[in-house]
Amino acid sequence: MAQDKIPVQVNGRELTLTNLAKVLYPEDGFTKGEVLDYYQRVSAVLLPHIAGRPMTIKRYPEGVDGQSFFQKHATPHRPDWVRTEDVKSHSSRARDPGATITYLVIDDLPTLIWAANLAALELHVPMWRFPRSAGAEPVPDLMVFDLDPGAPATVVECCRVAEALRPRLEAAGLAPLAKTSGGKGLQLYAPISGLTAEQASEQALSFAQGLEAEHPGLVVSRMTRTLREGKVLIDWSQNNGSKTTIAPYSLRARTHPTVSTPVTWDEVAACREPGDLFFTAADALARIAQRGDLFSPLLTG
């Protein structure tokens, strides 16, 4: 097809967009062109949250029903203006511990559109940013709690856990904000400073264990799947410097083009049905137009 390759200029950078009519979300008929349009329109609020962070993308070349893969290493076939940063892997699960990973860093709209054109539906980032001195441990600027419900629990139970966790965090001087995972769960973020990733993980674990002791029928802090039925796992381990969490405003590769969407504490308190905190790309854009970036307080550190 003549329209399979379309040259465009994005903020002065030349790109070739491909297969824009390809359906990536079959249930909704949501195309690659619509994915690119979403990321262009959301970029003003998305980019400040991911700029300077090593990016792991999850690509779906054949759509959400096809095969997918996480990509940490930046593809070698990339424009010379795409920023990358080398990081020595410290993950014990890496195939080659100590190997250098050349990460993609998405600081601007051209790079975001270039990545989205690779069918990178999901954007995953850690809680720290560059610069980072060679060999140094990452210094996080955020603490995250990933609230993951074990069926039959849903995001409704996650909201109750978030409400119980919030005063504990605030009593410790933290200012948590909530967003949906774009899937079944909820995530709390709070700005931090002066902690290593290990210290942030230990602190997050302490909060999770404290809430588990107070609400043993609702909360679990251990990853063991057999413990999670009908409860909410507070995944504190996402604060590890080698782990990533779905970025605010990223699409998710679910049946529908859902978005990891910041929500207010009033919305958390009012949630009584899973559908109360279900947001598609169109919903997220409408919310931003009305409310702006609810996560903007995370950027003022």
Gist of the model:
With 301 residues, the chain is of the alpha+beta class.
Plain-language structure description:
The chain is built from six helices and 16 strands. The protein folds into two domains: 2-125, DNA primase, PRIM domain (Alpha-Beta Complex), CATH 3.90.920.10; 142-299, Alpha-Beta Plaits, CATH 3.30.70. With 301 residues, it is α+β, with helices and mostly antiparallel strands. The model has no long low-confidence stretch (mean pLDDT 94). It is globular and about 60 Å long. Strands 5, 6, 7, 8, 9 and 15 form a six-stranded antiparallel β-sheet that branches. It starts with a strand and ends in a 10-residue tail after the last helix. α1 (32-50) crosses α6 (281-291).
SSE diagram, text form:
Blueprint: E1 5-10, E2 13-18, E3 23-25, E4 30-31, H1 32-50, E5 54-59, E6 69-71, E7 84-88, E8 100-105, H2 109-116, E9 120-125, E10 142-149, H3 155-171, E11 177-180, E12 186-191, H4 197-214, E13 219-220, E14 232-235, E15 245-246, E16 262-263, H5 265-270, H6 281-291
